[in-house]
Amino acid sequence: MIHFHVITLFPESIEPYLKSSIIGRALAAKKIKISFYDPKKFTRDKYGRVDRRPYGGGPGMVLEPDGVLRATQRAISTKRGVEKIFFSTDGAVFDEMMAKKLSQKKDIVFICGHYEGVDERVFKILSAGGGSSFGGKAKKVSMGPYVLTGGELPAATVIDAVTRFVPGVLGKAESLEASRVSSPEVYTRPEVLIWKGKKYKVPEVLLSGHHAKIEEWRKAKRGA
């Protein structure tokens, strides 16, 4: 079982998605576990404040390190081999291969930034290794060449992609489809769709029953 640990100020922003459909079934079947840790509940600030203005000036607010580190410490506890992920545009681009590798881990911690980001010392401390109580190096991961308002959507995306590789999560039909060559174009009934007087037909090759030709068609579409 993989245990996903999400450090976030806004767990309610992704909880409904993670409790539904295939991910929800995986949770219910105890194939995966998801825990949330809100830095506001771990900060030593008596008002529960976790954001501050950046040193040196600049726009927005920065998440201070104390609450994030204490929340992460609670998540990691005495566990070994924990994968620690920060979401950043200068990180390694997330892809299917990374998802497959992460599916071999037992514990994955996601540090979800917000506002203008997380104090950089959090990454340095979590990457220190050696004398650090947080174990091995942390990793920066990018979801693409764009910026989101927080790390919650990237965390949900990674959890979804990784969970697909956990044995027993996908049903037989879903597993079979996942092993086939995918295509950006998919069709279902009716064979001929009539919309505003025009006919839209399913490609003949998909109706042929010739599996080799269908796979060739899918490969061609994928490479187009």
Describe what this molecule looks like in 3D.
By secondary structure, the chain is α/β, with parallel strands linked by helices. The chain folds into two domains: 2-172, 3-Layer(aba) Sandwich (Alpha/beta knot), CATH 3.40.1280; 180-223. It is built from nine helices and nine strands. The chain has helices spanning 15-18, 21-28, 65-76, 96-102, 120-126, 152-163, 172-179, 204-207, 211-223; strands at 2-7, 32-37, 51-52, 62-63, 83-93, 107-111, 139-142, 192-195, 198-201. The strands form three sheets. The protein has a five-stranded parallel sheet. Strands 3-4 form a two-stranded antiparallel ribbon. Helix 4 packs across helix 6. The radius of gyration is 22 Å and the shape is elongated.
Put the structure in a nutshell.
By secondary structure, the protein is of the alpha/beta class. Helices cover 33% and strands 20% of the residues. The chain has helices at 15-18, 21-28, 65-76, 96-102, 120-126, 152-163, 172-179, 204-207, 211-223, and strands at 2-7, 32-37, 51-52, 62-63, 83-93, 107-111, 139-142, 192-195, 198-201.
Give the tally of structural domains. Answer: 2
* pLDDT < 50 runs, ≥5 residues: none
Distance between the termini: 38 Å
Number of helices: 9
Secondary structure elements and their pairing?
Layout: E1 2-7, H1 15-18, H2 21-28, E2 32-37, E3 51-52, E4 62-63, H3 65-76, E5 83-93, H4 96-102, E6 107-111, H5 120-126, E7 139-142, H6 152-163, H7 172-179, E8 192-195, E9 198-201, H8 204-207, H9 211-223
Parallel strand pairs: 1-2, 1-6, 5-6, 5-7
Antiparallel strand pairs: 3-4, 8-9
Helix pairs in contact: 3-5, 4-6
